[in-house]
Specification:
By secondary structure, the chain is an alpha+beta fold. It is built from 17 helices and 15 strands. The chain starts with 23 loop residues before the first strand and ends with a strand. It binds 2-acetamido-2-deoxy-1-O-phosphono-alpha-D-galactopyranose. 2-acetamido-2-deoxy-1-O-phosphono-alpha-D-galactopyranose binds next to helix 4 and helix 6. It comes from Klebsormidium nitens (Green alga).
Length: 528
C-alpha cells in the first residue's frame, strides 16, 4: 500500500457533504501534518491498521474515521446538568477502518475486530439497528454497537420530525477494525472517541454525512445505551474540536465557541494509574451523581412552590435555575447558590425523608429510567446540598476561565501581565479541584496525591479531569518548565510505582505528557 500522506490534502465538499459536516480528507496532512514526526507516526499507524484489516477480512478498508479523546480544562460534572464546559481535544484518538461486505446470502452482520486482539477480542453482531446493547456483558465492542444504533436512531428522529426527503439506507454487512490509543478509564474520553469514530464509520460506509452538531448530539444520546447517563461534552469536543484552541461548549442545542489559550502556559496530563470504569461503577458513582442532582433540583422546585407533578418532571439543576430566574429575574445577581443555602440541608438525605417531602416513592418518580432505579437500589443517602453547591459554583468558574483567557487575547503587547492570566486560570483550576474533591466527592487518594505532587513541583493550577474516581489530572505549567515538571513527576509519583510493577518505565511517555489542543473527527478516503 502506498504512503497515505502522499496524496493531496483536500477536503471533499461535493457529493452530498453539507457545510459543517465531518470533514473528508484524502490525506493525513490536514490532521497530522503540523509536525513531520507526528505525520510519519500517523502514516505508519494507518498503514498497520490497513494491513491488519486486509489480513482479517481479505480485502482492504474503504475508509477510516478518527475521533480524538479530550482533556477537560474546567467544568466537571455539569454538562449533564445543562451547563457549559471548556475542554480541548488531545492528540490520542481512535481510528475505525471499515468496508461494506458484499452480500453473500447470509444474514447481514457486523464483524468487529481490534488491532489489540488479546485485550479486545473480535466479536460478531447482527447488522440490526434495533438490537439492544448487552449491559450485563461489558464487551469493548458494545461501544461500536452504540455508535451503530445512533446512526439509525438519528435517521428515525429526522423522519419523525417530518423531514420527508430522508432516505434510510438498508443496513449493510460491515467489516470493522479498531485502533484506539486514548488511555482507557483515565477520564480522557476513550469511550466517546470509539463511539464517535464508530458512528462516523457506519454513517460514511452507508454514504451519509451528518452535520457536526447532529453528530455530537446523536453520539451523546447513543452512548447512553452503555448505561451511563452522560452529558454531551465528550462527544461534542471529539467531533467539533479545532487544532490550537479549546472550546466552550454549550448545550441544548449543542454549540461550540473557540477559546484561545494564553501564551506561556501548557497543559500537562498525568495519569493517576487508578482506572475508573465508569460503566461498571455507574450505579454508585456517575449515575448516582446524576440522580442526586435531579433530587436536589426537585427539592428546590418544591421550595419554589411548584406543583408536585411539575416537580417530578424536573431533570436538572439547569432547569431549576431557569425557573428561579423566571421567578426572580437576575436572582439579585447572586445566582442560585443562596437558594441552595436556604432550602437544602447540608447533611445527606435518606430516601424516606425525600419521599416524605416529595409525597411519592422515588422508584415511582424515576420508573422510566432503569439506570436511575439501579442507583436507588444501591444508594443509602443522597448529598443534595454538596452536589448542588458544586454544580452551581463550577458553572461560574467555567465562564470565569473563559473571560480570564480572553483577557490575554484582548491586551496588546508584552507589557500585559500574561503571567497574571496564567495565575488566575490556575487558581480557578485549583478551586474546581477542591469543589470536585470536597463537594462532589469524585476524587480518590491517588488523584489527591498526584494533584499535590503537581502543585509542589510548580504547577500553576492542577485538578482532576473527567469523571474522576481515578484517571488523570490536568495541570497548567509555564512553557519553559514543562520538561522539568514532567521529570519531577516521574521521580516523585511514578518511580515508586515503577518499582511496585504498576507501570513499566518505558510506558511513562503515555501516562504523563504535555498536550496542545488537537483537531476533531475526520473521515479519510485514500484513493489509490
Ligand atoms: P469521562 O471522564 O471521559 O468518563 C464523563 C462524561 C462527561 C462528563 C464527565 C465529567 C461520558 C461519556 N462522559 O467523562 O459527559 O460528565 O464525565 O465532567 O459519560
Amino acid at each position: 500500500m502506498a504512503s497515505l500522506v502522499a496524496a493531496d490534502a483536500k477536503q471533499e465538499t461535493a457529493g452530498g457533504v453539507s457545510e459543517g459536516s465531518i470533514p473528508v480528507y484524502s490525506s493525513l496532512r490536514p490532521v497530522h501534518g503540523h509536525d513531520a514526526e507526528e505525520l510519519a507516526a500517523a502514516d505508519a499507524r494507518y498503514e498497520g491498521l490497513a494491513l491488519e484489516f486486509l489480513q482479517a477480512y481479505g480485502a482492504p478498508p474503504v475508509l477510516f474515521v478518527r475521533s480524538p479523546g479530550r482533556v477537560n480544562l474546567i467544568g466537571e460534572h455539569i454538562d449533564y446538568e445543562g451547563y457549559s464546559v471548556l475542554p480541548m481535544a488531545i492528540r490520542q484518538d481512535t481510528i475505525v477502518a471499515v468496508r461494506k461486505r458484499p452480500d453473500d446470502g447470509s444474514a447481514p452482520s457486523l464483524r468487529i475486530a481490534n488491532v489489540n486482539s488479546k485485550k479486545y477480542p473480535a466479536v460478531v453482531f447482527p447488522a440490526d439497528p434495533s438490537q439492544e446493547v448487552d449491559r450485563g456483558n461489558h464487551s469493548w465492542a458494545n461501544y461500536f454497537v452504540c455508535g451503530y444504533k445512533g446512526v439509525w436512531e438519528h435517521l428515525e428522529r429526522l423522519k419523525a420530525s417530518g423531514k420527508e426527503d430522508v432516505e434510510v439506507p438498508t443496513p449493510a454487512s460491515l467489516d470493522v477494525m479498531v485502533d484506539g490509543i486514548v488511555p482507557t478509564g483515565a477520564g480522557l474520553s476513550s469511550s466517546a472517541a470509539i463511539v464517535c469514530a464508530s458512528a462516523g464509520a457506519v454513517m460514511a460506509a452507508h454514504g451519509l454525512n451528518f452535520s457536526q452538531t447532529d453528530m455530537a448530539e446523536l453520539c451523546c444520546k447513543c452512548e447512553r445505551h452503555i448505561g451511563t447517563q452522560s452529558g454531551g461534552m465528550d462527544q461534542a469536543i471529539s467531533i467539533m474540536a479545532k487544532p490550537g484552541v479549546a472550546l466552550l461548549i454549550d448545550f441544548n442545542p449543542v454549540r461550540a465557541t473557540d477559546v484561545a489559550l494564553p501564551e506561556g502556559g501548557t497543559f500537562v496530563i498525568a495519569n493517576s494509574l487508578t482506572e475508573s470504569n465508569k460503566a461498571e461503577t455507574a450505579a454508585v458513582n456517575y449515575n448516582m451523581r446524576v440522580v442526586e442532582c435531579r433530587l436536589a433540583a426537585m427539592v428546590l422546585g418544591l421550595r419554589l412552590g411548584l406543583p408536585k407533578q411539575e416537580v417530578y418532571a424536573i431533570n436538572t439543576l439547569g432547569e431549576i435555575e431557569d425557573m428561579l430566574s423566571a421567578a426572580a429575574p437576575g436572582l439579585g445577581g447572586e445566582g442560585p447558590l443562596p437558594a441552595v443555602e436556604a432550602h437544602l440541608k447540608p447533611e445527606p438525605y435518606v430516601a424516606e425523608e425525600l419521599e416524605e417531602l416529595l409525597g411519592e416513592k422515588l422508584e415511582t418518580i424515576m420508573k422510566s429510567s432503569p439506570t436511575s432505579l439501579a442507583v436507588l437500589a444501591a444508594a443509602k443517602h443522597f448529598a443534595l446540598y454538596k452536589r448542588a453547591k458544586h454544580v452551581f459554583s463550577e458553572k461560574e468558574r467555567v465562564y470565569a476561565f473563559r473571560d480570564t483567557a480572553a483577557r490575554a487575547q484582548s491586551s496588546s503587547g508584552a507589557s500585559f501581565s500574561s503571567d497574571q492570566v496564567l495565575e488566575d486560570l490556575g487558581q480557578l483550576m485549583n478551586e474546581s479541584h477542591a469543589s470536585c474533591s470536597e463537594l462532589y466527592e469524585c476524587s480518590c487518594k491517588e488523584l489527591e496525591e498526584l494533584v499535590g505532587v503537581c502543585r509542589k513541583n510548580g504547577a500553576i493550577g492542577s485538578r482532576l479531569t473527567g469523571a474522576g474516581w481515578g484517571g488523570c489530572t490536568v495541570s497548567l505549567v509555564r512553557d519553559g518548565h514543562v520538561a522539568g515538571f514532567i521529570e519531577s513527576l516521574k521521580e516523585d509519583f511514578y518511580k515508586s510505582r515503577v518499582e511496585r510493577g504498576l507501570i513499566k518505565e518505558g510506558d511513562l511517555e503515555s501516562v504523563v505528557f504535555a498536550s496542545k489542543p488537537a483537531g476533531g473527527a475526520a473521515i479519510f478516503r485514500f484513493d489509490h
